[in-house]
Amino acid sequence: MTRTQEIRPDINDGIDRKVLGQLRARFLKVNSGRLARAMQALSTRQQLVLKLLPLLLHVNHPLLPGYVSGTAPAGLCGFEPSDELLAEATRLTRSFIYKPRRGNPPLPIHGLFLMGSLGTVAQAEQSDMDLWVCHAPNLDSKALHELRKKCDLLEAWAATQGAEAHFFLVDPARFTIGDREDAQLTSDDCGTTQHYLLLDEFYRTAIWLGGRTPLWWLVPVYEEANYAAYTHALLSKRFIRAEEVLDLGHLARIPPGEFIGAGMWQLFKGIESPYKSVLKLLLTEVYASEHPRVECLSLRYKQAVFANHLDLDELDPYIVVYRRLEEYLTSRGELERLELIRRCLYLKVNKKLSSPPRNRAKSWQRLLFERLTGEWHWSQRELAMLDSRSQWKVRQVSAERRALVNELTYSYRFLSQFARSEQTGSQLNSRDLGVLGRRLYAAFERKAGKIEFINPGIAPDLAEDTLTLVHSASAEAGGETQWALYNGSLNGQEWPDFAPLKRARELIELLAWCHRNGVIDSSTRLSLHPGSSDLSEFELSNLLSSLQQTLPLPMPPVAEEALLHGAEPAEVLLLINVGLDPLKAHSQLNVHMTTGRTDSLGYSGVRENLVVTLDQVSLNSWNELLVSRYDGPNALLDCLRDYINGLSADGRHPRLQVRCFCRNRAAAIAQRVEELFRDVLVSLGSHRHSRYLLQVQQHYHVLELQPGQVSHSALADLPALIEHLGEEQADYSPLQVDRFALEGEDLALILPLGRPQCIQVFYRLDGQQAELSVLDEHNALWRQRLPYRDEQSLLTPLQRFLQSVLYRRNALLPLDNPLPAAALEVLYYEVLPAPPHRARHLERRTPPQAPVSHPFYDVQAIVEPADQAHVHVTLYCNHREFSELEYGADLFAAVARHILAQRRTSERYPCYITDLDLSRILGDGQAETIHYLRYKSELEAALNNALQNA
């Protein structure tokens, strides 16, 4: 490497034009070296593209690529094509004759620069060409439109030559103030606010192809902060001519917001392709850590040229970045991060040093990396491992993922802290950081039930040719069973000697992990050792197919809109009885059951529940894959509850699929569960607070369907259900009865009839007895069994009681109440036919009409609160008062004696409460009718018991 004395021009002492010429020559020497390196790695046709582009922008010729019109902007400042270049153009079009411009007309294109990895150690066959076309600031909109069209045509022509080119129009005058025509100035640019960081990258990586050279080249680093005055002096004192230079601005100060923006962009890309982003992320961290005195790499590059340190290897853009990161991490003692950076750089360059070169001669990139890896003391084994990345499988990818995720997570925390410390957390930055944090969380955060994605752009394919799936008892977990996945095809004697790739308590968790990470694909051969499970190869194959169909890969990217809201389920796959036969005992005995009762939740005469376990696989709107297992007596209800509670607040439902592949009645089981979920969803959408009644075996379950707060009550038998349905409701709550619940019971007919603002009375005659049922205005159930003589004596007392309750409640309400209690309608139905036949239908009945002459015996009760949850009761029999103050514990006995004394005969038929005041207990008249009926039942029971004993 040749060295001369460092050039340190001083504007105050006067600047020698010869010195400025030397400086420009040094930059051009580095430039020509980089351009030669770029050409070496290109095909002949790609080289032709790069050679011809300056000429094609310099001229307008109808038969040359890029021709738009004779008036389209053309002409590259200071450009004169060589004879060799003109000969190449003639080969394209024989009629082309170059006509030099006469005089010194102003030319519209001031400079042409090549950006990207061409000419660097990371140049690859697929590297694209990002070209900056710097044009005169005075081009009007028509000229700009034609220039844009010309560039588009050149891109299309380059593509025919095997070159991917992207042209970006740059007005230097607008660019220096941060106003950019192309929002995206490189194909790898974030496209928003990183003006100075983009300029930094331009100055240290761009290859000049023609036109004016950057004015920035001629400004010493120590004058960067004085850039405007220094360049003004250079131009005004005619040290340089304005038509020879291009001014894109300086790098004296980089606003801190740019580090946040650049870091967020690289983190966003790093979630999918971490190797490509980690180097730039760490460089952003280095810059931010130096703020406000940032020594950006372009200034180091310029200083090296001024010092005549022109070694192309050490000035290579990627090596310059690496050396800066190495310096930073070594000073902090972060050697693990340094090793990761080295791997990222090595994999980016993609020169496989463990294999001999394709040709005998080694490329300059290979020689450079042999020196670097020698510095790093990498062994041949380490090189071979990195070179085989395309064959990496689960073990290597998992280890590498940890390092990459740690780095991305660290970068996010650093950016967040930097934003806070520099007070650059504008509303936009805060929002974007929040969204980015959610992206990282969704992609990498571990949590219970979440399937970990282990391959964020680390290896191209994790699929294994052969795997062995084993179900066994876990010695470490006290006999708990587990599923494990092993490499290769292993028999029962072999697999215990190997370490599994992955273990899981449940099969679906393991299969979902395999599918999400592409470990199993359509060509993978699986050996199965089912152990104590009932899993068959048929079921295993169908489980995998269900996962593949429900969750096709690759998953689409998550839209930003989805991350602005909480995650909600998008796809749900329910898998019933995985690895389990619900009728195993019958299968083993080779018994085939024939039964008319085919409901999967109450199968056969003994009402067996065939839904034993459920595995829920859910993909949410953040692309998180979650697996939940439900087993035990309430498995189905727990699953249903969690499913509904997970729905979005706006009522949208995920796509639900239910599958079952067990040995017996699989299709019927899946259909039953799917119908149940859909019925409940319909019920949920019908009212903001509805209920759903389900029967599983002999047990009943009532689901309270309040969005986000679904709960269920398990009830052992019919009396427990009736008691539960008699609980008061805060408002009207419809009750949907499952299609198979309450088979043959009259409640199956009664319960679905609930109506708001309506009290409905149902009765069923059974010989000397009658069953009275009432659904009140909130759809609470009251039921009472009474002696039966005739319909008049059965219904009239209840009718009178309800009328008095409504009267009392109405009297306590304000007169402007829009729905007074008196507006409640009372309807009557008879349940038919009478026992012992099953209840089949209801018939509407008119309310009982008692003749005016018919004598009624009024029994009024007033109930008031007492100490310790007790109450005081006062009874009035035809307006005669019976008080606990007078009779104490004998109150009901005294009333019974009085009533019997009033009767013409000594027959002890029941006595009914005809009026009841609960105002001191229930308040201002808003109490539900069920409260009155409940007290009525208790008081009547006490009174009639006293009648029988009197």
Automatic annotation (TrEMBL):
Asked if Lyase is a keyword of the record, the answer is yes
User: Source organism's superkingdom?
Assistant: Bacteria
**A Pfam family the protein falls into:** Adenyl_cycl_N
Enzyme Commission (EC) number? 4.6.1.1
Outline the extent of the Adenylate cyclase class-I N-terminal domain: 21-217
What is the protein's given name? Class I adenylate cyclase
Alphabetically, the GO molecular function entries are: adenylate cyclase activity
- Enumerate the Gene Ontology biological process terms: cAMP biosynthetic process
